C-alpha cells in the first residue's frame, strides 16, 4: 500500500511539473516520467500485459513522436505567443470555478467499498487474451478496424493529390 | 524465496552485467581487428600481446580526458542522455535465458534473471526506450548537427520498430507464448517430427526482416545515419567528449550483444544444440555446453554485424525510409498471412 501511495505521489508530482515547466521539451520529459509511473501502477495491479503495452505504445512511440515534433518547432522567446490580460484573467477564473466544482463534488461522495477482483491473474496475457477473444470478440475486432481506418485516412491525407501533381 | 536464492540471483545479475561489459569492451577490439582483416591491414597490435590490452587503454583514455560541457548545452540533460543510453542497453539482458537449470549441491540455479510471461514485449519496450538516450543527448547539445542526428535516430527507430513488431507477431503465432524461456524450450535439440526445431527454419522470412530491423535499431551500418560523419560531423554525439562519449559508443556495442542474444534465442535455438540429450552427458554438463553454444551463436552474430559494417556502404536517408515503409512492412504483413495460412492448412 505504501508503494502505491509513493507512486501515486510521483504521478501527481510529475504531472504538475508537466504543466508548470517553462520549456516544452522539459514538459514532455516530465510527461514521459508520468507515463512511467502509470506503468508501475499497472504492475502493482498485476496487469503485466497492460503495463508493458503502456510502456511500448505511450513511452516508446507516442511520446517519441511528441518529442520529435517539439524539437522541430522554433522555441525562441521572440516567437512565443503573447496573451492579452483578459485571456489570462478568463483562464484563471475558469480554472478557479473548475476547482470549486471538483471540491464540491468530492465532498458529496462517500467512500465506496474496495472492489475485489474475482481473479487476480486477469491481467496476465493468457487470461486477457481469452477474455478479449471470447467475451469481447466483436468490440475488439470493431475497434481494430477503427484504428485501421484511421491509419488509412492518415495515409490518404499524406499522399499527394494526383490532380495537383 | 530464501536468502540463498536472493544471493544466487544477485550473483547471476552481477555476472551477466560483467559479461555484457567485457563482451562490449572486446567487441571494440574485435571490430578493429575485423576491419583490419577486411581491409588487409594488421590492426591494433601495440598494447599487450596482439594488442589485447587495447580496450583497457582506450577505456583509460576515455576516463582521463577532459570533461567538456558546452556553454549553450542544457547541463542536466546533457548528462542524462548518455546515462540513459547505457542504462537501457544494460537492462535488456534481464529476460534472456542464458542456459538451462544448473544444480549446485541442493540448489537449482535457473540461468535467467527473471522469466516474466511478457519477455518478448519487455525486450521490445527496452529497445523502444533506447532512442531517448540519443534524442535527449542530441537535443541537449544545442547543436544543429546533433539535433539532426537525434531526429534521424528517432524517425529511423520508430519506422523499423513497426516491421520488427510485425515480424515478431508471425513468430508468436507459431510459439504461442511470449516467454523467452518457453520459446527456447520449444526449440529443444535440433531435429524433431521431420523438421528442424529452430525457429529460423520455420520463419526464414521473419528472421530476415528481424535481422534487418535489428541492424537499424542498434544504429549499425548500413543504417548508421544518426552518426553519419560525412553529413553530420559526428551526429548526435558531436559535442560529447571523455566518458560520456564512451558511454554512447559502449551502449552501441552492448546493444549489439543483447540483440545478438535475442536473435539467437528467438530464431537460432538459444542454448539448444544438436544431439544435446543423445550424448549421455550429465545435466550440468549439458547446461554448461548449452551456455557455450549460446555464446558461440552470439559471437557469430556479432561477427556478422561487423562483417556487414565493413562490407556495405551507408544508405541514403530516403532509401532507408523507403526500405522500412515500402519493403519491410508489406513483407512482414505478407509473412503473417503466409504463416497463418500454413499453420491452418498443414496442421
Q: How many runs of DSSP E, i.e. beta strands of chain A?
A: 0
Output the structural class of chain B: mainly alpha
Q: Portion of residues in helices of chain A?
A: over 70%
Secondary-structure element pattern of chain A, one letter each = HHHHHH
Low-confidence stretches of chain B: none
Secondary-structure-derived class of chain A: mainly alpha
The greatest inter-chain interface is formed by: A-B, 21 and 25 residues
Number of domains of chain B: 1
Strand content range of chain B? under 5%
What percentage of the residues of chain A does DSSP assign to strands (E)?
under 5%
What does the oligomeric state look like here? heterodimer
Task: Tell me what the structure shows.
The complex is a heterodimer of chains A (165) and B (347). By secondary structure, chain A is mainly α. Helices cover 73% and strands 0% of the residues of chain A. Chain A is built from six helices and no strands. Chain A has helices at 2-20, 24-44, 48-72, 85-108, 125-134, 137-158. In chain A, helix 1 packs antiparallel against helix 2 (24-44) and helix 2 (24-44) runs antiparallel to helix 3 (48-72). The radius of gyration of chain A is 22 Å and the shape is extended. Chain A starts with a helix and ends in a 7-residue tail after the last helix. The model of chain A has no long low-confidence stretch (mean pLDDT 82). Chain B has helices spanning 3-38, 54-64, 75-91, 119-140, 144-175, 180-186, 204-217, 229-232, 242-267, 283-309, 317-346; strands spanning 101-104, 107-110, 191-192, 195-196. A two-stranded antiparallel ribbon of chain B has the order 1-2. A two-stranded antiparallel ribbon of chain B has the order 3-4. The longest helix of chain B is centred in the first third of the chain and has 36 residues, at 3-38. Chain B is globular, with a radius of gyration of 21 Å. Chain B starts with a helix and ends with a helix. The model of chain B has no long low-confidence stretch (mean pLDDT 84).
Amino acid at each position: 500500500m505504501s508503494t502505491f501511495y509513493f507512486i501515486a505521489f510521483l504521478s501527481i508530482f510529475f504531472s504538475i511539473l508537466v504543466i508548470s515547466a517553462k520549456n516544452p521539451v522539459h514538459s514532455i520529459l516530465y510527461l514521459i516520467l508520468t507515463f512511467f509511473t502509470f506503468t508501475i501502477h499497472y504492475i502493482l495491479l498485476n496487469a503485466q500485459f497492460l503495463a508493458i503495452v503502456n510502456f511500448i505504445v505511450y513511452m516508446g512511440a507516442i511520446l517519441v513522436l511528441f518529442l520529435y515534433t517539439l524539437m522541430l518547432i522554433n522555441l525562441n522567446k521572440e516567437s512565443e505567443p503573447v496573451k492579452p490580460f483578459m485571456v489570462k484573467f478568463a483562464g484563471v477564473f475558469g480554472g478557479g470555478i473548475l476547482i470549486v466544482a471538483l471540491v464540491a463534488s468530492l465532498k458529496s461522495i462517500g467512500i465506496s467499498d474496495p472492489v475485489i477482483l474475482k481473479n487476480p491473474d486477469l491481467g496476465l496475457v493468457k487470461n486477457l487474451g481469452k477474455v478479449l477473444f471470447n467475451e469481447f470478440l466483436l468490440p475488439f475486432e470493431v475497434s481494430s478496424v477503427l484504428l485501421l481506418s484511421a491509419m488509412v485516412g492518415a495515409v490518404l491525407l499524406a499522399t499527394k493529390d494526383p490532380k495537383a501533381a | 524465496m530464501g536468502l540463498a536464492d536472493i544471493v544466487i540471483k544477485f550473483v547471476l545479475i552481477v555476472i551477466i552485467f560483467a559479461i555484457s561489459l567485457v563482451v562490449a569492451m572486446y567487441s571494440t577490439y574485435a571490430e578493429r581487428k575485423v576491419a583490419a582483416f577486411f581491409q588487409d591491414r594488421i590492426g591494433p597490435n601495440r598494447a599487450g600481446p596482439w594488442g589485447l590490452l587495447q580496450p583497457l587503454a582506450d577505456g583509460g583514455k576515455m576516463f582521463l580526458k577532459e570533461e567538456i560541457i558546452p556553454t549553450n548545452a542544457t547541463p542536466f540533460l546533457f548528462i542524462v542522455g548518455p546515462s540513459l543510453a547505457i542504462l537501457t542497453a544494460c537492462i535488456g539482458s534481464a529476460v534472456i535465458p542464458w542456459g538451462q537449470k544448473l544444480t549446485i549441491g541442493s540448489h537449482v540455479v535457473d540461468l535467467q534473471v527473471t522469466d516474466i510471461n511478457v519477455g518478448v514485449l519487455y525486450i521490445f519496450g527496452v529497445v523502444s526506450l533506447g532512442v531517448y538516450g540519443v534524442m535527449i543527448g542530441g537535443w541537449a547539445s544545442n547543436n544543429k548537427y546533433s539535433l539532426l542526428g537525434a531526429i534521424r535516430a528517432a524517425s529511423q527507430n520508430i519506422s523499423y520498430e513497426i516491421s520488427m513488431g510485425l515480424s515478431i507477431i508471425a513468430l508468436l503465432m507459431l510459439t504461442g507464448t511470449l516467454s523467452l524461456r518457453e520459446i527456447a524450450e520449444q526449440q529443444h535439440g535440433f531435429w524433431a517430427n521431420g523438421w528442424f526445431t529452430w525457429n529460423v527454419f520455420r520463419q526464414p522470412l521473419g528472421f530476415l526482416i528481424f535481422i534487418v530491423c535489428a541492424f537499424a535499431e542498434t544504429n549499425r551500418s548500413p543504417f548508421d545515419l544518426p552518426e553519419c560523419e560525412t553529413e553530420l560531423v559526428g551526429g548526435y554525439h558531436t559535442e560529447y567528449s571523455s566518458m560520456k562519449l564512451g558511454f554512447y559508443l559502449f551502449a552501441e556495442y552492448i546493444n549489439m550483444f543483447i540483440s545478438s542474444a535475442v536473435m539467437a534465442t528467438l530464431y537460432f535455438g538459444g542454448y539448444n544444440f544438436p544431439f544435446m540429450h543423445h550424448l549421455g552427458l550429465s545435466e550440468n554438463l549439458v547446461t554448461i555446453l548449452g551456455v557455450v553454444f549460446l555464446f558461440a551463436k552470439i559471437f557469430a552474430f556479432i561477427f556478422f554485424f561487423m562483417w556487414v559494417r565493413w562490407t556495405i556502404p551507408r544508405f541514403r536517408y530516403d532509401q532507408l525510409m523507403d526500405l522500412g515503409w515500402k519493403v519491410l512492412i508489406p513483407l512482414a504483413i505478407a509473412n503473417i498471412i503466409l504463416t497463418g495460412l500454413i499453420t491452418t492448412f498443414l496442421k
